[in-house]
Amino acid sequence: MAKLLAFFCLFSYIIVLSLCSVSAAIDDNQDQQVYVVYMGALPSSEVYTPMSDHMNILQGITGESSNEGRLLRSYKRSFNGFAARLTQSERERIASELKPSIFFLDKEGVVSVFPNKNLQLQTTTSWDFMGLKKGKATNRNLAVESNTIIGVIDAGITPESESFSDKGFGPPPQKWKGVCSGGKNFTCNNKLIGARDYTSEGSRDTVGHGTHTASTIAGNAIQDASFYGLGNGTMRGGVPASRIVSYKVCTWLGCSSDSILAAFDDAIADGVDIISISVNMGYPSPFEEDPVAIGSFHAIAKGILTVNSAGNNGPEPKTLESVAPWILTVAASNTNRAFLTKVVLGNGKTLVVRLKKPVFDDLYYLVFVSLNPFLNMKQGKSVNTFGLNGTMYPLVYGKSAVNSSACSVESAEKCEEGCLQESLVKGKVVVCNSTDSYEALANGAVAGLSLNRTPNVAFVTSFPLSALSQEDLNSLVSYIKSESSPLATVLRTEESFSQLAPVVAAFSSRGPNTIATDILKPDISAPGVEILAAFSPEVSPSSSVYDTRRVKYSVLSGTSMSCPHVTGVAAYIRTFHPQWSPSMIKSAIMTTAWPMNASETGFVSTEFAYGAGHVDPISATNPGLVYDLTKADYTAFLCGMKYNATTVKLISGEAVTCIGETAPRNLNYPSMSAKLSGSKSFFTVIFKRTVTNVGTQNSIYKSKIVLNHGSKLNVKVFPSALVFKKVNEKQSFTVIVTGSALDSKLLLSANLIWSDGTHNVRSPIVVYKTLIPLSEFSEASVMKKYGLKPDAETLDIANTAARQKSAKLLIYWGDPREKICEAVDHIPLSSLGGLEWMIMGSVSNHIVNNVACPVTIVKSHH
């Protein structure tokens, strides 16, 4: 986690489902509307009475002795607030007069007042959340959409799924040149028009991942889809009239580089229009060693956009895996829905929504970053469809059920394999101080309570299970110790809705870009948390050997889920602008994005988490201006990266003479980023860009600068206005950024907005500096500064790296030394070498815990 720079006790923010249960209403006799008055966390004081406070607030604002008919609902169990009928002036008085004091943030006060809205709980799709509604609510060019072919490079597909039925589809587009070679018992149709297998298993999806991503992109509309009742509604893809082609490169064993390159090769030749690939290397790789970067370069040369997941190794910085500028890289964010699993203890306490006061960098985070509705929830996170009918069962801590003949108490505490004694576990709820409770299940436990190392994300479980924060787990252990016969039960998962989204998920990999350091990555964020989509019946939804269930639809989380959302958006844009280049489509997505926030603070809460922002499908169809790029531009960029002709050929496949090179920061990219080195107090950075008018003729765009993170930037744009006489006309401009006091732990950023009164073309501007060098990091005092324990082994590793430029260490997920990656920069070969790391994960790109994480300190590639 990023370290916090200042200490303010702030209110935590959350709105849950009950906020949506009060219908919007207008009083017939007065201009009153239902508003939700949100007051943050419940005060810690035992004498505080929420409902009395709410009544007093209303009486003070309205001047009425009786609030009958005014107060509709008090929120007093999990957070503080109420719903009431208010006039506009009363709403404004509450919002302005009763704000919590900056200096007394423990005092009860109003955090926000917003109009009540009817949320449509029956929908199960994230597409509605993004504004891409179903049916006639969204304008569609169905003729072009039906002629659009999406290539999905993944783990195969389930051809029988209703999501891929060809009912109502005509024959494949004439441009289609591919085949259906899915293997035995695999049939294509006019929706799923092709399949290729590179694994010798056949194209059928045995993982579930490929079916899920494909249906998210272009699955048919399926009514009453749910996961055991959760998320019930109409499920559909972003472009349901489009055709799908499956390229299977992954199995449970992994996704080989050669298979990926072969899939790109075939997809380009087959005539696909867009490629979606939710597969990553596991660590940032040089372009010439990255099969996705190489394959996608060839794709863009043929006019095919590649959309790729950012990776699931966040929130530490420099964990982003998809770094090439010709790829559209997607981070993962939440929607207004979350899955929560309550744990009820024998003393009547329910672990569901306890709030704590976080600390943030400055007051900016009070208003914006802390609005993450899931950031500080103390609840069980899982997708648990098993019911214990409220029955209380004996509660036992793993260390108290140790199989002493085989394991230590410490191993039993974590419920490691073979370490629990069956007679002490069977028929009980077992608490494991780790992320794995399946050993408890194997020994007859009725339910498990484990540690959640992936905050704000719920994963499907194979038996009654709730994953708790470390704080709640500690409270649970204290309860067990304080009771002679502790009891607990795990309830079925519930849905909770909040309007406080989108926020980047903690697991989503962060920048900065470690390969092309002047290219901002990720590019965009999209829904990737708890996404319901089609699934394969070949595997259980929990991927556990103990789980015998088979389902048509399931819930998954990861940047693997956000990637297909943006693929669908890109395809949607292309249906209106089939002549646009891949870079124009990418630009439209980035420059029309919603501004947003991340679930962390400091370095990883910035544009390094979300890029340009959250994708807005409707606005992206009419961006006004776009930043265009060609294959020649990307080649000049590679030359500007100081790649030699041999290396450029490895990427592009063609012999290149680097005559006209482009400085990486001057690539005509929709965002602007510069990494600075050295210790100079003042800096000047120059960006050069060219935009193409795709809006209207005779238009004038004026520039505006909005400062974002940090206020020590001075940004000038020359010229300050762009005049376009005709459509497709190009105009160039220069951005000069000056500033001082650049902190290695927090970037400086701003937004450049070009506006003609109708279109707002927004580009993030980011300036950051080199992180702490490895030579300094080998000092214990520096390690302590970054929150790391300077144990002998870690210090030895850093010193060895500084001395020999090469060292290796095997650690485990959650080990504090994993954070070493947060602070160490890639250093030039002439210096000390850098640190690279890799999380070994499953082919499905899920968050994987308790697996070996090789960390290798190696020579940098640059």
Automatic annotation (TrEMBL):
<feature type="domain" description="Peptidase S8/S53">
    <location>
        <begin position="146"/>
        <end position="613"/>
    </location>
</feature>
<dbReference type="InterPro" id="IPR036852">
    <property type="entry name" value="Peptidase_S8/S53_dom_sf"/>
</dbReference>
<feature type="domain" description="Inhibitor I9">
    <location>
        <begin position="34"/>
        <end position="121"/>
    </location>
</feature>
<dbReference type="InterPro" id="IPR014729">
    <property type="entry name" value="Rossmann-like_a/b/a_fold"/>
</dbReference>
<dbReference type="InterPro" id="IPR010259">
    <property type="entry name" value="S8pro/Inhibitor_I9"/>
</dbReference>
<dbReference type="InterPro" id="IPR045051">
    <property type="entry name" value="SBT"/>
</dbReference>
<dbReference type="InterPro" id="IPR006016">
    <property type="entry name" value="UspA"/>
</dbReference>
<dbReference type="InterPro" id="IPR023828">
    <property type="entry name" value="Peptidase_S8_Ser-AS"/>
</dbReference>
<keyword id="KW-0378">Hydrolase</keyword>
<dbReference type="GO" id="GO:0006508">
    <property type="term" value="P:proteolysis"/>
</dbReference>
<feature type="domain" description="UspA">
    <location>
        <begin position="792"/>
        <end position="859"/>
    </location>
</feature>
<feature type="domain" description="Subtilisin-like protease fibronectin type-III">
    <location>
        <begin position="666"/>
        <end position="767"/>
    </location>
</feature>
<dbReference type="InterPro" id="IPR041469">
    <property type="entry name" value="Subtilisin-like_FN3"/>
</dbReference>
<dbReference type="GO" id="GO:0004252">
    <property type="term" value="F:serine-type endopeptidase activity"/>
</dbReference>
<dbReference type="InterPro" id="IPR000209">
    <property type="entry name" value="Peptidase_S8/S53_dom"/>
</dbReference>
<feature type="active site" description="Charge relay system">
    <location>
        <position position="560"/>
    </location>
</feature>
<feature type="signal peptide">
    <location>
        <begin position="1"/>
        <end position="25"/>
    </location>
</feature>
<feature type="active site" description="Charge relay system">
    <location>
        <position position="209"/>
    </location>
</feature>
<dbReference type="Pfam" id="PF17766">
    <property type="entry name" value="fn3_6"/>
</dbReference>
<comment type="similarity">
    <text>Belongs to the peptidase S8 family.</text>
</comment>
<keyword id="KW-0732">Signal</keyword>
<dbReference type="Pfam" id="PF00582">
    <property type="entry name" value="Usp"/>
</dbReference>
<dbReference type="Pfam" id="PF05922">
    <property type="entry name" value="Inhibitor_I9"/>
</dbReference>
<keyword id="KW-0645">Protease</keyword>
<keyword id="KW-0720">Serine protease</keyword>
<dbReference type="GO" id="GO:0005576">
    <property type="term" value="C:extracellular region"/>
</dbReference>
<protein>
    <submittedName>
        <fullName>Uncharacterized protein</fullName>
    </submittedName>
</protein>
<dbReference type="InterPro" id="IPR034197">
    <property type="entry name" value="Peptidases_S8_3"/>
</dbReference>
<dbReference type="Pfam" id="PF00082">
    <property type="entry name" value="Peptidase_S8"/>
</dbReference>
<dbReference type="InterPro" id="IPR015500">
    <property type="entry name" value="Peptidase_S8_subtilisin-rel"/>
</dbReference>
<dbReference type="InterPro" id="IPR037045">
    <property type="entry name" value="S8pro/Inhibitor_I9_sf"/>
</dbReference>
<feature type="active site" description="Charge relay system">
    <location>
        <position position="154"/>
    </location>
</feature>
